[in-house]
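Predicting structure from sequence has reshaped protein science. With that in mind, we have picked out one protein's residues alongside their backbone shape tokens:
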Amino acid sequence: MNVEGCGSVVSFVGLTRGEDDGIEVLRLEFDSWEEKLHEILMKIGNESIDMFGIHSVLIAHRTGSVQPSEPIVCIHVGSKHRASGFEACSWLIDELKLQAPLWKKEVRSDGEIWKQGLG
């Protein structure tokens, strides 16, 4: 990640919650279309650079089993000013959830359910 000329790096880290609607979550299991995931993350990262005038973006999303309190997704945005970095970071997590070819199964104390939507 290039931070030359940046005055800030804004970061978002999404974690696995240990409960959902009062029910214990044992783990999340993420599946993805591996061949397309990198391509989509690169695409939205490049779009955010153009849209928000930021310097650089780094996005990583885990697949497989993720335990409570463990990180799922990390987004880092290098920008000249923090305002554009925060705006871009917020937009990126929303777009990731809309576009990334990821599917999430919640393994809970009362069984397993696939969560709707991507990401």
Summary: The beta strands are 8-15, 19-20, 23-32, 56-61, 64-66, 71-79, 102-108, 111-114. DSSP finds two helices and eight strands in the chain.
